[in-house]
Amino acid sequence: MRIEPYLAFLTPTYHSVLTTTIVGCYIAWVMPRRNSGEEPSHGGKKEVSYDPLSPGERSERMKLIRSKNTKVEMVVRRLTHAMGYRYRLHSKALPGSPDMVFPARKKVIFVHGCFWHQHENCRHYRMPRSKLDFWLPRLESNKRRDAKVYEQIKESGWRYLVVWECELKNREAVANHIKSFLEE
Questions:
Q1: Predicted structure pTM score
Q2: Cβ–Cβ < 8 Å for 168, 73
Q3: Is the separation of the CB atoms in 109 and 175 below 8 Å?
Q4: pLDDT tens, 88-128?
Q5: Would strands 26-30 and 19-23 be described as parallel, antiparallel, or unpaired?
Q6: % the chain with pLDDT above 70
Q7: What is the model's pLDDT at position 28?
Q8: Are 20 and 3 in contact (CB under 8 A)?
Protein backbone atom coordinates (compact mmCIF):
# COMPACT_ATOMS: atom_id res chain seq x y z
CA MET A 1 0.00 0.00 0.00
CA ARG A 2 1.40 3.38 -0.97
CA ILE A 3 0.89 6.11 1.61
CA GLU A 4 2.36 9.08 -0.28
CA PRO A 5 -1.04 10.31 -1.58
CA TYR A 6 -2.26 10.53 2.02
CA LEU A 7 0.77 12.63 3.02
CA ALA A 8 0.26 15.32 0.40
CA PHE A 9 -1.38 17.69 2.89
CA LEU A 10 1.71 17.77 5.11
CA THR A 11 4.36 20.43 4.88
CA PRO A 12 7.81 19.30 3.68
CA THR A 13 9.20 19.77 7.21
CA TYR A 14 6.74 17.31 8.72
CA HIS A 15 6.93 14.96 5.75
CA SER A 16 10.66 14.49 6.23
CA VAL A 17 10.36 13.52 9.90
CA LEU A 18 7.06 11.66 9.75
CA THR A 19 7.13 8.09 10.96
CA THR A 20 4.51 5.75 9.57
CA THR A 21 3.47 2.42 10.89
CA ILE A 22 1.08 0.10 9.14
CA VAL A 23 -1.01 -1.92 11.60
CA GLY A 24 -3.40 -4.30 9.85
CA CYS A 25 -5.34 -2.12 7.46
CA TYR A 26 -4.81 1.06 9.50
CA ILE A 27 -2.01 3.56 9.15
CA ALA A 28 -0.78 5.24 12.30
CA TRP A 29 1.10 8.47 11.84
CA VAL A 30 3.40 9.62 14.58
CA MET A 31 4.07 13.33 14.34
CA PRO A 32 6.95 14.97 16.17
CA ARG A 33 5.96 16.81 19.35
CA ARG A 34 5.53 20.53 19.07
CA ASN A 35 8.26 22.66 20.47
CA SER A 36 7.54 25.95 22.15
CA GLY A 37 9.54 27.80 19.49
CA GLU A 38 11.09 30.01 22.15
CA GLU A 39 14.72 30.89 22.16
CA PRO A 40 16.86 28.92 24.59
CA SER A 41 17.15 30.41 28.06
CA HIS A 42 20.31 28.56 29.05
CA GLY A 43 23.60 27.55 27.48
CA GLY A 44 22.63 28.21 23.85
CA LYS A 45 20.92 24.84 23.64
CA LYS A 46 17.28 24.91 22.62
CA GLU A 47 15.00 23.54 25.35
CA VAL A 48 13.19 20.37 24.35
CA SER A 49 9.48 20.55 25.07
CA TYR A 50 7.96 17.39 26.46
CA ASP A 51 4.55 18.99 26.38
CA PRO A 52 2.26 17.70 23.64
CA LEU A 53 0.35 21.02 23.78
CA SER A 54 1.45 24.27 22.22
CA PRO A 55 2.27 27.13 24.62
CA GLY A 56 -1.08 28.78 23.86
CA GLU A 57 -3.04 25.60 24.53
CA ARG A 58 -1.10 24.99 27.77
CA SER A 59 -1.77 28.57 28.86
CA GLU A 60 -5.50 28.14 28.29
CA ARG A 61 -5.54 24.93 30.37
CA MET A 62 -3.56 26.53 33.19
CA LYS A 63 -6.04 29.42 33.34
CA LEU A 64 -8.81 26.93 34.14
CA ILE A 65 -7.13 25.79 37.37
CA ARG A 66 -8.88 27.32 40.36
CA SER A 67 -7.55 28.06 43.83
CA LYS A 68 -10.91 27.80 45.62
CA ASN A 69 -13.88 25.44 45.27
CA THR A 70 -11.85 22.78 43.47
CA LYS A 71 -13.33 19.33 42.89
CA VAL A 72 -11.10 17.87 45.60
CA GLU A 73 -12.20 20.53 48.07
CA MET A 74 -15.86 19.98 47.21
CA VAL A 75 -15.54 16.24 47.91
CA VAL A 76 -14.07 16.93 51.37
CA ARG A 77 -16.77 19.55 52.08
CA ARG A 78 -19.55 17.12 51.14
CA LEU A 79 -18.04 14.38 53.32
CA THR A 80 -17.75 16.72 56.30
CA HIS A 81 -21.22 18.16 55.85
CA ALA A 82 -22.72 14.67 55.54
CA MET A 83 -21.16 13.80 58.93
CA GLY A 84 -23.10 16.68 60.46
CA TYR A 85 -20.29 19.21 60.88
CA ARG A 86 -20.81 22.85 59.91
CA TYR A 87 -17.99 25.15 58.95
CA ARG A 88 -16.99 28.47 57.42
CA LEU A 89 -15.17 28.71 54.10
CA HIS A 90 -11.88 30.48 53.31
CA SER A 91 -11.65 32.70 56.38
CA LYS A 92 -9.38 35.64 55.59
CA ALA A 93 -9.01 36.31 59.33
CA LEU A 94 -6.75 33.25 59.66
CA PRO A 95 -3.31 32.78 58.10
CA GLY A 96 -3.41 31.01 54.74
CA SER A 97 -7.19 31.41 54.36
CA PRO A 98 -7.98 27.75 55.27
CA ASP A 99 -10.44 25.86 53.09
CA MET A 100 -12.67 24.89 56.01
CA VAL A 101 -12.83 26.64 59.38
CA PHE A 102 -14.53 25.28 62.52
CA PRO A 103 -14.54 28.37 64.79
CA ALA A 104 -16.12 26.75 67.88
CA ARG A 105 -13.53 23.96 67.82
CA LYS A 106 -10.61 26.25 66.83
CA LYS A 107 -9.69 23.82 64.05
CA VAL A 108 -9.12 24.22 60.32
CA ILE A 109 -8.81 21.88 57.36
CA PHE A 110 -6.60 22.55 54.35
CA VAL A 111 -7.38 20.56 51.19
CA HIS A 112 -4.22 20.37 49.10
CA GLY A 113 -3.61 19.21 45.55
CA CYS A 114 -0.62 16.89 45.43
CA PHE A 115 1.08 18.72 42.56
CA TRP A 116 0.71 22.32 43.72
CA HIS A 117 1.77 21.61 47.30
CA GLN A 118 4.46 19.02 46.47
CA HIS A 119 3.11 15.99 48.30
CA GLU A 120 6.20 13.87 48.86
CA ASN A 121 6.17 10.18 47.87
CA CYS A 122 2.93 10.62 45.97
CA ARG A 123 2.30 9.41 42.44
CA HIS A 124 0.14 12.48 41.72
CA TYR A 125 3.13 14.73 42.28
CA ARG A 126 5.74 14.73 39.53
CA MET A 127 8.12 17.58 38.88
CA PRO A 128 7.62 19.05 35.40
CA ARG A 129 10.36 18.20 32.90
CA SER A 130 10.40 21.50 31.08
CA LYS A 131 10.65 25.15 32.20
CA LEU A 132 12.31 24.16 35.46
CA ASP A 133 13.56 27.70 35.97
CA PHE A 134 9.87 28.67 36.34
CA TRP A 135 8.45 25.64 38.17
CA LEU A 136 11.14 24.95 40.81
CA PRO A 137 10.94 28.36 42.52
CA ARG A 138 7.16 28.48 42.25
CA LEU A 139 6.52 25.06 43.79
CA GLU A 140 9.20 25.56 46.44
CA SER A 141 7.63 28.87 47.44
CA ASN A 142 4.27 27.10 47.83
CA LYS A 143 5.90 24.59 50.16
CA ARG A 144 7.66 27.32 52.21
CA ARG A 145 4.43 29.33 52.44
CA ASP A 146 2.52 26.24 53.64
CA ALA A 147 5.08 25.61 56.41
CA LYS A 148 4.89 29.25 57.49
CA VAL A 149 1.06 29.17 57.52
CA TYR A 150 1.00 25.97 59.59
CA GLU A 151 3.31 27.58 62.15
CA GLN A 152 1.17 30.72 62.33
CA ILE A 153 -1.98 28.63 62.79
CA LYS A 154 -0.36 26.75 65.69
CA GLU A 155 0.91 29.98 67.29
CA SER A 156 -2.59 31.46 67.24
CA GLY A 157 -3.93 28.49 69.21
CA TRP A 158 -5.65 26.66 66.37
CA ARG A 159 -5.12 23.11 65.15
CA TYR A 160 -4.99 22.11 61.50
CA LEU A 161 -5.46 19.05 59.32
CA VAL A 162 -4.18 18.67 55.76
CA VAL A 163 -6.20 16.45 53.44
CA TRP A 164 -4.28 15.50 50.30
CA GLU A 165 -5.86 14.92 46.91
CA CYS A 166 -4.51 11.36 46.68
CA GLU A 167 -6.09 10.39 50.02
CA LEU A 168 -9.56 10.75 48.51
CA LYS A 169 -9.20 7.40 46.75
CA ASN A 170 -10.34 5.96 50.09
CA ARG A 171 -13.12 8.33 51.15
CA GLU A 172 -14.11 6.25 54.15
CA ALA A 173 -10.61 6.57 55.60
CA VAL A 174 -10.64 10.34 54.97
CA ALA A 175 -14.04 10.63 56.67
CA ASN A 176 -12.73 8.72 59.70
CA HIS A 177 -9.60 10.89 59.80
CA ILE A 178 -11.68 14.10 59.68
CA LYS A 179 -14.05 12.80 62.37
CA SER A 180 -11.22 11.84 64.73
CA PHE A 181 -9.53 15.23 64.13
CA LEU A 182 -12.70 17.20 64.86
CA GLU A 183 -13.70 15.12 67.90
CA GLU A 184 -10.38 15.20 69.77
A1: 0.65
A2: no
A3: no
A4: 998 889 999 999 999 999 999 999 888 878 888 887 777 77
A5: antiparallel
A6: 66
A7: 43
A8: yes
Q: Which CATH superfamily is domain 66-183 in?
A: VSR Endonuclease (3.40.960.10)
Domain ranges across the chain: 4-62, 66-183
Task: Return d(Cα 95, Cα 149) in angstroms, integer.
Answer: 6
116-125 per-residue burial string, b: 16 or more CB within 10 A, e: under 16: bbbbeeeeeb
- 15-24 pLDDT tens trace: 444 444 444 4
Q: Do residues 103 and 94 make contact, with C-beta atoms less than 8 angstroms apart?
A: no
pLDDT of residue 117: 82
In contact, 142 and 116? CB cutoff 8 Å: yes
Burial class of residue 110 (count of CB atoms within 10 Å of its CB; 0-12, 13-18, 19+): buried
Strand ranges of the sheet holding 88-89, from the earlier edge strand across to the other edge: 88-89, 100-102, 107-112, 159-164
